[in-house]
Amino acid sequence: MRTGVAYMGHYNPRHIEVDIREMKGLQIDEVLVAVQENDFAYFPGKAESTSKIAKEHGMRPVAIFWGALNLFGGGRSSQFLLEYPEGLQVGRDGAHRAEGCYVNQACVGRVKEMIDVVAGLGFEGYFVDEPAPLRDCYCNSCCNAYIELNDADLLSASDAEKETFRQGCVVEYVQRIADYCKCNYPKMETMTCLTPEDKQMWQKTSEIANLDNLGTDLYWVNNNNDVEGMVPVIKELDGICKAKGKRHHAWLQCWGVEKGREQRILEQGKILIREQPDSLYVWAWQGQVGTNEACDDPGVAWRYASEVFKMAKE
Known about the structure:
The chain has about 325 residues and is of the alpha/beta class. The protein has helices at about 15-25, 35-40, 45-55, 80-85, 105-120, 140-150, 160-185, 200-205, 230-245, 265-275, 300-310; strands at about 1-5, 30-35, 60-65, 90, 95-100, 125-130, 190-195, 215, 245-255, 280-285. The strands form two sheets. The protein has an eight-stranded parallel β-barrel, surrounded by six helices. The protein is globular.
């Protein structure tokens, strides 16, 4: 089982070197670099240096676009949408939303441009993380796409019809990105994570020919769910992936962990190790310290996550 960790990163290679060496000490195989749009515009050192240093130490660098188009994750300050507000979502009331729309081909084009950059920097995988249905977007791109598919008005569609459309847009977006990567960078691993709440899209997503790796994130640390309840969820996705020849990964939570609940990181980690997905990933490095998604006590949380990494290689 391969292991990996999400990494918010630094811009100074001296600090990156220290972190990568510590990752190697935990026998971590992959560093999943949370590259933000500002890193392309103003702070190129993070993407450039992390890929290079990771490979020098025998680790595989994978790019995640964190906060891109103000959609996934933190750091939502999209440079692209500042310059191209036409890419913003539009609510039913006609008002713009802060997030971008991945049905809009200009937005997809910008993501592809960023993929070109990270591919040129030596990243060996690209990760589409948690693409979710854009249930409140009625921009021209969404409305026109619905007309093309159904010869009908999106605004007049029933809730069930809209949900089918929204889920289809997620799958189509992942397919477009996976196809682009494989067409232009055939050695790049294509990966995506769909939450358990979006499990209804697992099957269709697994059928994307150019997608290599499909996973999910059971972020249960802050609730009281019995960790054994993870098992049927993991097995279900594992079965779907095996049937379609996909690699399967699972994420372990080490972000936003409430004080006193850190032990559950280890409890969940033991379940994941026992179930043996192809890859076990932790979000995020050192409890995501220094961000607004940090654990209440990042040091304690990270000690438990580090124990999981060690157990995974025993």
